[in-house]
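Quick one:
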Amino acid sequence: MELVNKVIGQELSLFEKKFSDSVKSSNPLLDRIMRFIIRRKGKQMRPMFIFLSAKIAGEINETTYRAASLIELLHTATLVHDDVVDNSMKRRNFFSINALWKNKIAVLVGDYLLSKGLLLSIDHGDYKILQITSRAVKEMSEGELLQMEKARKLDIDEQVYFDIIRAKTASLLSAACAAGAFSSNSGEEATEKFRLFGEKVGIAFQIKDDLFDYGQDNIGKPTGIDIKEKKMTLPLIYTLQHADLATKRRIIYIVKNNSEERSKVDEVIKYVQKGGGIKYAQEKMLQYKEDALQLLRTYPDSPARQAMEQLVDYVIDRKY
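Output:
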């Protein structure tokens, strides 16, 4: 990631200050929670995609910084709400907002973050960027609900799977890249190209997450968390589609009835490993990555484009 930091390191540092300013509140409790959130933020992957998209398509400007703040505000709001829905007590190895301040406050904090993002765009007339990100939030909700609906029946085929992850996971990264490109005054064509680029990277990112559940890439023993939660991911879907009837019935029975038993989950993992599900998912992931890079390479070679390629490699080749 050295090249990424070299190309947009100054912008990311300035963004940190601008983002901190954007979430300040006169309410002492809210301000304390905002400081807690800022201190425990992740790697800032989406702002990186935004700034690099803007730099490749044109020039970084104040609109780019607001776009990055909006995406981070909306993303953080969804994470806070997700922790409430999932009753999760940890977020990035720290206590979650709901663990420390209870569910009611956590929901209100998520609402506050959402409102700050909306006002940031409205106050500066960034209506197109607000439209791009609002569509992503709508798609994220639809993707999550579709996954919940299908999980009850375990009838997700490959097309439905991609519909889910395109909406649930890829939509926000897609919006980040599109907003970054649009902020640089590059026009509709570049905005759409970067939207599609971000979507393909986001899909590859989610497939990578799916593979972690089966102990790939030397990250240790398989976790089987997705199986325990009855999530139908690509390796499992492929295995079911190509297994004989007896094996298919056995896998479905375990997922429906024995997903809390470690030995049974391990049995499903072995079926997937032997059935070619891992190899197929890896091939699909690399194809989406290559398709994304082909879109990127329609732009002239530059330090910003090289940094974006490095960022894509990091996202797809990561070990955790």
